[in-house]
Every structure is written in C-alpha cells, then in structure tokens.
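Q: What residues go here?
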C-alpha cells in the first residue's frame, strides 16, 4: 500500500474546508493543502482572525488554529497542489443545472469536468482521485475517461468517498462518523487505492466503520441517504398540517412513532421545511436519473418529497398572511433566523428565503436578524430569486444585528432558524415592545406554547392547532 505524505483538496467550501481540517488534525504526518480558485475564500481561510473563516462550524476554528501553517495549508496554487499530492480530493460545487438538458434537476458537472481536465494536464505521476462532492451515479467513469484520454500517460484510480457530515455538527460528525464509505474498482489496483484511503480514516476511526463498495453503489448511496433523510422530514411535515386541523400535536405523534425501534426517533422534527445545499439537489438528481432510465414511477415517488417541502414553506407564509387579517402590506415582520439550520452561516435553500419572498410579494416590511449570516448574503439570496429588483428588496427588507431593538412596533415575529439564543430572550419584554395583538409564528417549534400564550402572544406553532 502506498505511503501517503501529501494530499490536496480542490474546493475550500463547506465540505472541503472542515473535512481537510479534521484529516490534518488526525494525520500530523500528512501535508494537507486545500486549494480554491476563489482567492477571497482562500484569504478568509488564511485570516489571522479565526472569526473570519468563511465557514462557521462549532469546533472548526480551534482545529484550524492548531493545524494551519503546520500541516494544513490553504492556497490558490491549484496546479502546484495537484502536482505534489498522492491523493487528490475533488470537493467542488455541483449545483442543479440552470440550462439545457436536465435543467432544474440534473447536477451541473462543469466544475467537476474542469477539475478533471486540470488534474490530467498537471499530473506527472500516478494519483488517486477521490470524489468528495455528491455526484450522480457513473460520474466516476466520466472522470476516469477524461483523465485517461487527456492525461500524461500516468495511472489514475478514481474513488467515490461521499461526505455525510451535516452542517452545524460537521466536526463531531467527522470525528465520530457513523460510517465512511469508499467506492472504487474491484481490480487489484482499485482495491489497493481503497485501502490507501481507508488507512487515512483509520487514524481515528475503527476499521469496521469504513465500508468498501463498488464505485456505483457508493455514488448512489449518498443520494439515497439524503433522499431518505429528507423524506422523513417531508413525512412528518405532511402530518404537521393534519395535526393543525385535528388538535393532534405533531411532537406527540413524533414521539409516539419514534419509540418504535424500526422507525427510530431521529429526524422527525416538524419544521417550516428543510433547506441546505444537499437535500433538494440530491433528490432532484435522483429524480432525473430515475426518469432518464425510464423509471417514471420511481422519479414521481421521490419528487413528492420536494413538492411536500415547497408546500410546507408556502403554507407557513400563507398562514402568516391570513392570520394578520389577510394583509401584511406595510406591516413590520421580524425574522429570527435566516440560516437553513442553527450553528451554521450557510443559507443555501433556506426556508427563510422563500417565506420572505412570499411576504415581500405582499409588500410586508421585513427585518431579519441572524447571529451568523451577513447582510450581503441575505440580499444575495433574495436577489438571486429575481422576483423583485435589488432596490425593492433593499427597500422592503432590512437586516439588523440588534434583534431586540428590531421588534419595536413589530406586528409579528417569525422564527425561521432554531438558534438556541432565541429561547433565552426576555419574551415578556419583547411582548411589551410589539404592536398588539402581538403575533409569533414559530416555524421551528422552539418555544413553549403555554408560556407564550400566558405572556399575551398570539402564538402559532407548526404542527399544533
Ligand atoms: C444533510 C445530511 O444530514 C448530511 O448527512 C449530508 O452530508 C448533507 O445533507 P445538512 O443539510 O447539513 O446535512 O443538515 P441536516 O441536519 O440534515 O438538515 C437539513 C435540513 O432539514 C435543515 O433545514 C433542517 O432544519 C431540516 N430538518 C432536519 C428538519 O426540518 N427536521 C428534522 O427532523 C431534521
Ligand atoms: P460544498 O458545500 O460542496 O463544499 P461550496 O460551494 O461551499 O460547496 O464549495 C465549493 C468550492 O469549490 C468553491 O469555493 C469554488 O470556488 C470551488 N471550485 C469550483 N471549481 C473549482 C476549480 N475548478 N478549481 C478550484 N476550486 C474550484
């Protein structure tokens, strides 16, 4: 088995950054270089003030503090890093296609292909190339074909090693991974490459948690894992709508079914809808793959998970509008949270974006507070939808770092992210400062209904009548 001394990762995002930081911390004898074409992002990773890292994750800055400059490096010198490394991880973005065949469903693989061509051009000795990004099944074969046909005659082994970390708990998920999946060819050299990569993870994980499969099973498993998780959220969210009509309580239903060990208790929290960079994209991908193989029933089955999620976001916004006497025009609504979940500054596909969009269409005046998301990001998310002009978005929606001041004379508060700090606010003081009747729409089931009602709020909680 090859002795690994240098690895590199192309793409310094939410996956590449934390993953490589953990590998560097657990494998001090390996030089880990994370490269990106985005110089601003690399500068942020190299910022001496660790509060400025481009990714916020509990525990990440501590790891970067002890490894950066020792065996962890962030750089824009992509070619140099590729040339040096024995193992190259590809961790670039694979957004849903916005054009051409598969538009709105298939993953756009242009960044992956650019990486593969870059590796082929630069590599002067044998390399193991690892797909870390989530990719459609059979992408490894496409990468292999590019590398073999445009390379310098050196040997490449392509492995699929999907990342299962969840944002907000990335470091813990990496350090205590339930499993690591490594897919590769069943040939002797493929098996050797799998063992070489496995040896890296064996620095801190027991060998029995490292699963080796063929490359297609590994690629497909990542999509299926995310589809199953998202399906649970959509399933419980569909039931939340029913609970609101029937006086059942969705938390009690979750608890009751979760006690069945076959169902299990995790991932049954009803919410305003799932977000994040993976769930929707991966399901759309699954839908596209199934339909391109002529499996329309399979495609329709999984698409329903997304339809239900869109319904949940829309339902939440519509409930705010109808509860506020069917008009939100000119009314101040304060959003607590913008990130797609707590403990991250990531906003991709966050439910908050779509709820805001629906309310802004009704000319609500929104003020957003999120402890970790920047003003620039919030406006970028809204502008990207292209529903209104950037000027209108800035006129109707303001961003604040002072949540308590923001609620002065507000008609309503909508909780969009389950940040812990919201639980500790002085809600009686908040009540005093709001217009009456004061409404709270809790899209994360964060607060206690009885105490909120006692304080005088008109309190609406997803999944309760
Ligand atoms: C997910 C997968 O969990 C992870 O394994 C994969 O690698 C990437 O995609 P992530 O998107 O970071 O991770 O976060 P996750 O914790 O899965 O939450 C996704 C969304 O579902 C969030 O918006 C979250 O608020 C929502 N959610 C999750 C619920 O609404 N209810 C739940 O019970 C769980
Ligand atoms: P993820 O959540 O999967 O980590 P991100 O979008 O956060 O995705 O990060 C992907 C990163 O990959 C971005 O910082 C982007 O600049 C980088 N990237 C994309 N294409 C290339 C490329 N050809 N070479 C180097 N970096 C790239």
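A:
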């Amino acid at each position: 088995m090859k002795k690994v001394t240098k690895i590199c990762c192309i793409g310094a995002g939410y996956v590449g950054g934390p993953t490589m930081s953990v590998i560097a911390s657990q494998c001090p004898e390996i030089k880990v270089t994370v490269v990106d074409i985005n110089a601003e992002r690399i500068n942020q990773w190299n910022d001496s003030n660790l509060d400025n890292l481009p990714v916020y994750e509990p525990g990440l800055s501590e790891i970067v503090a002890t490894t950066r400059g020792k065996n962890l490096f962030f750089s824009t010198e992509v070619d140099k890093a590729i040339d040096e490394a024995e193992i190259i991880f590809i961790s670039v973005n694979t957004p849903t296609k916005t054009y051409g065949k598969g538009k709105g469903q298939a993953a756009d693989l242009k960044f992956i292909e650019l990486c593969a061509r870059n590796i082929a051009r630069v590599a002067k000795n044998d390399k193991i190339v690892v797909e870390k990004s989530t990719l459609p099944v059979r992408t490894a074969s496409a990468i292999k074909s590019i590398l073999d046909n445009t390379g310098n005659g050196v040997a490449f082994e392509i492995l699929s090693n999907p990342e299962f970390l969840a944002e907000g708990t990335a470091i813990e998920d990496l350090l205590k991974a339930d499993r690591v999946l490594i897919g590769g060819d069943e040939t002797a050299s493929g098996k050797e490459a799998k063992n070489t990569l496995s040896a890296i993870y064996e620095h801190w994980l027991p060998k029995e948690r490292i699963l080796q499969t063929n490359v297609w099973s590994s690629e497909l498993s990542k999509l299926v894992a995310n589809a199953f998780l998202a399906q649970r959220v959509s399933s419980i969210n569909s039931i939340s709508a029913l609970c609101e009509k029937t006086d059942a309580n969705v938390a009690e239903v979750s608890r009751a079914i979760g006690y069945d060990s076959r169902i299990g208790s995790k991932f049954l929290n009803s919410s305003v809808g799932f977000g994040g960079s993976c769930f929707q994209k991966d399901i759309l991908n699954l839908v596209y793959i199934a339909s391109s193989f002529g499996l329309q029933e399979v495609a329709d089955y999984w698409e329903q998970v997304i339809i239900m999620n869109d319904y949940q976001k829309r339902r939440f916004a519509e409930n705010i509008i109808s509860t506020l006497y069917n008009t939100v025009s000119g009314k101040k609504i304060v959003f607590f949270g913008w990130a797609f979940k707590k403990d991250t500054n990531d906003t991709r596909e966050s439910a908050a974006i779509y709820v805001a969009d629906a309310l802004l269409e009704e000319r609500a005046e929104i003020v957003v507070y999120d402890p970790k998301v920047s003003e620039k990001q919030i406006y970028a998310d809204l502008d990207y939808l292209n529903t209104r002009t950037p000027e209108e978005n800035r006129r109707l929606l303001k961003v604040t770092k002072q949540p308590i001041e923001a609620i002065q004379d507000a008609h309503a508060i909508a909780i969009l992210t389950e940040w812990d700090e919201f639980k500790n606010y002085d809600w009686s003081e908040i009540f005093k400062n709001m217009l009456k009747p004061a409404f709270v729409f809790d899209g994360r089931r964060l607060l206690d209904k009885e105490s909120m009602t006692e304080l005088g709020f008109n309190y609406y909680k997803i999944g309760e009548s």
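A: Context that may help when evaluating the design: Residues 65 and 111 are 30 Å apart (CA to CA). Residues 230-465 form a domain with the Rossmann fold fold (CATH 3.40.50.720).
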